[in-house]
Specification:
Oligomer: single chain
Strand order of the largest sheet: 7-4-5-8-9
Order of helices and strands: HHEEEEEEHEHEHEH
Structural class: alpha/beta
Helix content: 25-40%
Radius of gyration: 20 Å
Low-confidence stretches: none
Largest sheet: 5 strands, mixed
Strand content: 25-35%
Number of helices: 6
Length: about 210
């Protein structure tokens, strides 16, 4: 389950941090509500830190903390299932700055398939935590493999990082691409499937 942040205490400490930087909310009305706003953002962006999704069948559930994962039997579906163009936003574990981008998922099912609306929810769940893009990519892949036990799975994330564009190297056009792949048994078919997956990704304007 997601951790419960101490928002009041965090707000006090963040205000002290601002004052130490010469930014006193009590002396500048524009900064008056900044500590609360920043802490509220951080609490939301890190809500699922070190958490696992709680799978539910209830029609009434907390979409931020729970996932209603509808699966269906897969009967002789020896094909690549691809879903792309899924936006995500996460927070950099090193600088607590946002990174954001687009996710692409492909898999060959074994005995079940997942409802297509569930893949964006899985991505969003794991994105609501301090992350590196590399870890986020692997976490999404690992969860899909655990859930579906597919013959083959691949996840690709394309990201833009504020820690690269707004500080340090100051390169706003830089992009990061990460992939994580799984094969139950490596075959030449899976090499072909990976190429098929990348063709679909490129076709979506990556």
């Amino acid at each position: 389950m997601p951790h419960i942040p101490d928002v009041a205490n965090a707000t006090i400490h963040f205000k002290r941090c601002m004052v130490s930087l010469g930014l006193d909310p009590d002396k500048d009305s524009a900064l008056l509500e900044t500590p609360e706003r920043v802490v509220s953002f951080l609490a939301e962006a890190t809500a699922n830190y070190r958490s696992r999704p709680v799978v539910t069948k209830s029609p009434h559930y907390d979409r931020a903390a729970e996932l209603k994962l509808t699966t269906f039997p897969a009967e002789n579906l020896n094909q690549l299932i691809f879903q792309g163009g899924m936006s995500f936003t996460s927070i950099c574990v090193h600088h607590f700055l946002p990174f954001y981008g687009t996710a692409y998922i492909g898999y060959i099912p074994s005995d079940k398939i997942l409802g297509l609306s569930k893949f964006p929810r899985i991505i969003d769940f794991f994105a609501r935590a301090p992350n590196t893009q590399e870890y986020l990519t692997q976490a999404v892949r690992d969860y899909i493999v655990e859930l579906l036990r597919p013959h083959f799975a691949i996840v690709l994330l394309k990201g833009h990082h504020s820690c690269v564009s707004c500080r340090g190297p100051l390169k706003p056009t830089a992009q990061t691409i990460t992939t994580s792949q799984y094969s139950l048994l490596h075959t030449d078919r899976h090499d072909t499937t990976k190429q098929e997956f990348l063709t679909y990704v490129q076709g979506m304007g990556m």
